[in-house]
Amino acid sequence: MITAPLRTGTRLEKPTGIPHAPETISCSLPFGTTAMNLANRLILITRPEPGACESARLITRHGGRALLAPLMTIEPATDPRPFLRAMAELDTFDAIVLTSANAARAFIAALPEGIVPPPLLTVGNKTARILEQAGLTAIVPDRPMGGETLGHELLKRFPDCRRLLFPRAEEGREELISLLEQAGKPIETVTAYRSVPVTRLPETLLDRLPEVDALPFFSPRTVEIFLDLLPKGAASLPARAVIAALSPLTAETLIRYALRVDLIAPANDGEGMISALIDYWESSNNPPSR
Fold it and tell me: Domains of the chain (ranges plus CATH)?
């Protein structure tokens, strides 16, 4: 665990020159802050847009600085036809599983006008809010902690379901699928989008890395891309930086790279991650470094 204090801040820091990413990252940030819980600490955000800017706004609102370096861009599926066919046959499914905000956005964009979908189960509150903003109702586990928890929730609520639809990333993981298939619930997976990784880290990020106070990781794939692209791998990370995981699965990936995990967010969304960092520093009783 980290015992040394970390640096802090209130403005957005933006590395540039990221292949496969927008040339500039423009976030509309509030002029003031509502709290100073992050005490000017510098937090590296590697999640793709639009989540990166959403996290930056939260960090700034709480008196921190966000260093943005998205490691992936979200793009349409290489072949969208299976996804679109499934969306045209929604009435043949008993439930739909959405394990990311990106999947929810793709689902909304492809939803035929006037169609009421079958029950929608989401991995967390953030994904549910995206659906609710589009006028859809979502079911969220009582304690959202990732795909496995969502699978158990589905089995509890819909024990008799026979056909499930799982729109996901092209490079999605298999844990949820395995859990449901072992329970005798075949699930039809379709690619709704793809996450395209960057091919190198920007020099600005490498230069600023020693100043970073926290490295929150929002997915296992982000961990893999980041550590594989670092010139010295995990050895390049500042020893005093807090390492945080959004889910137990992300934490397992960090451990696989021989990294410690200082905290796992109690809620599977960006707000839960920032709240967990604030709680961590407040409970550690350490002032920020300068």
Answer: 12-71+198-284 (3.40.50.10090), 76-194 (3.40.50.10090)
